[in-house]
Amino acid sequence: MFKKQDNDAGKIGDAEAEFHYASFNHFLSIPAFLILLFYFPVNASARVITVKHGTEINTLQKALVLAQNGDIIKVTKSTYFIEDLIINKSVSIIGLDYPILDGQKKGNIIVVRAPRVTIKGFIIRNSGISNIRDKAGIRVEKGDSVNIIDNRLENTCFGIYLAKVNGGTISGNTIHGANSVIQSGNGIHLWYSHYIKILNNKISRQRDGIYFEFATHCEISHNLSETNYRYGLHFMFSNDDNYTFNTFRNNGSGVAVMYTKHIRMTNNTFEQNWGTSSYGLLLKDISRSVISYNTFSKNTSGIYMEGSSDVKAEHNNFLNNGLAIRMLADCEKDTFMLNNFMGNTFDFTTNGSENLNYLKGNYWDKYAGYDLNRDKKGDLPYRPVSLYSQIIEKIPSAVFLLRSFMAELLDKAERALPSMSYVNLYDNEPSMHIIRP
Amino acid sequence: MNKIIKYVLHDIFRNRILLAYVVLLSLSSFGLFLMNEDVSKGISNLLTVLLIVIPLVSVLFTTIYFFNSYEFIELLVAQPLKRSKILLGVYAGVGLSLLSAFWLGIGLPVIIFDGTIVGWYFLLSGTLLTMVFVSLAFLASVLTRDKTRGIGIAMLLWFYFTLIFDGIVLMVMFAFSDYPLEKLTIFLSCLNPVDLARIMVLLKMDISALMGYTGAIFNQFFGSSAGIVLAISVMLVWIVMPIALALRIFKRKNL
């Protein structure tokens, strides 16, 4: 019986399609009414308020005053000038044909302060610029289960800014920042937020494409983050997150991840991060994490590891990087298995002689050993740290002999008669063939 | 002088050795381009050819040619001709033929497969390098009358510039590794045309980022247009100096 009542309420709402209630309470029994009262915030999505020029409700502000929790506000195509529009009711705001919300470069554009808010289908542009007050296109404060779907953010300082949010989805948004370093904040910024899904977004020309601080249990997949001024992805203290199928391309300094445990990064692409101090992936104090099935191509350093432990890197491709992996001596218990190293200037560099990490079964295109017993593993161990890279480690300016006959001869001589090499790092079972997953 | 150049060119083109050189160059360049899926990899592999084979062939071919046509040069000296014109004529002839071999064997494939700015820098440094080693070979040739010694000096020069010099540089760097060496490396690289040619190409390739990784000043200097102009003019000095010296010696030489 209660079910039926709910349906009735839905129908009435649809039929009215306006903002006044049909009164149907009188035929409800008292307990049913109480239950419905609890239900109402979820199920009253039936009500639709339309914002349209020329009608009584011609601004979002008016619609928000009239709306109640669970209502849908549809916004027709036009340009609306708004500043710090605070959404403190659980409503869905849906743009028809991408209406434009213009912040006139003053403050935030939309500020969400209620749970279960949906913002979908808008062009949001020209937020104010401030890195002290972090002005954003869409700012969500404690708005749990927020949905930000299919918007285009242009020329906003911060794009989407989540603070203390639990649960929610950010998907299909395009965020294109201001064309200036000073004026840009982060594309998607999460602070103290948990269980957020970030899917299919495109972010470019921001400071950091995606920035996490204390954001845990998040799912980040199929995003494209490119040409950002600093990092394509940057996170700190953000444990238990999952990064899959993302592409980080041509960012100022690549991707930097720091002070974090239990990360899974799989099937991502890190490419074209060329620059004097640019990384495909910078790992600093990362532990108990998995990096697998990723492609690192054309980066100055494919992976740069500092103070990282218990990181498993498997089935990755390192192609045409300057340094495929640079691992500082404070890394321990890291495992590199079944990776392909092809066309890198240096496969591996390190700054110490002791090694507490483990390499096995990788394919190295520079490996010149043989396989007499036909088990598809090279009979001689491969030393990925070349003599010349150790010379550069000691005398950085020796890099100017890169690719000279002298440098190549030194490496060849060292491979033939390993005597000078002091780094204790081997792959004891190098693969003879390129590894295909 | 034009007649001398014409005669030298005619003489060299009849020779099979130059043809073999063209074939060697084009085989290696086509081979490297076709084997590598990535064109820039092809260029970076060709760099080894550029830095080792081209200087070697240029210096050897020139020296051997000079001594083989020694009698012809003696004959010309007996004519009412200026000695400088004779030597410059032979120089231009040999230089032109080696350059045409370089452009046929490497220039053509590079333009076909690559054609980017890196390719053009590659060809520019190849051209300059060829001429540098032709000049050096002339210097080696006029220093002595004995063919074997001449070839020996030429080989030593090649060996010095491709290997020994870099070895010495490395030793110096080891010895003075406590001091800032970045500016010194700029100066040192100017002392070796092979290093200059290599750096000109490398800094145009993506690998420049790697250079900048530790040698920021170096990268900044040779990456700027002023640095490139300087590199090219130093290479030109390396072409002009040896041949001018050779001319001086040749003029006074008792043949």
Please tell me about this protein's structure.
The complex is a heterodimer of chains A (437) and B (255). Chain A is mainly β. Chain A has a domain at 2-42. Chain A has a 25-stranded parallel β-sheet that branches. A 13-stranded parallel β-sheet of chain A has the order 3-6-9-12-15-18-21-24-27-29-32-35-38, with no helix packed on it. In chain A, strand 1 (48-51), helix 3 (60-66) and strand 2 (72-75) form a beta-alpha-beta unit. Chain A is elongated. Chain B is mainly α. Chain B has one domain (2-252). Chain B is built from twelve helices and no strands. Chain B has helices at residues 2-14, 16-35, 39-68, 70-78, 83-113, 117-143, 147-175, 182-190, 193-202, 208-214, 216-223, 225-252. In chain B, helix 3 (39-68) packs antiparallel against helix 9, helix 6 crosses helix 7 and helix 10 packs across helix 11. In chain B, 45% of the residues are buried. The mean pLDDT of chain B is 89. The chains are: A mainly beta (437), B mainly alpha (255). Chain A binds chain B through residues 274-278, 298, 300-301, 320, 322-323, 343, 345, 391-392, 394-409, and chain B through 38, 41, 44, 47-48, 51-52, 162-163, 166-167, 169-170, 173-174, 177, 181-182, 184-185, 189, 194-195, 198-199, 202, 206-207, 209-216, 218-219.
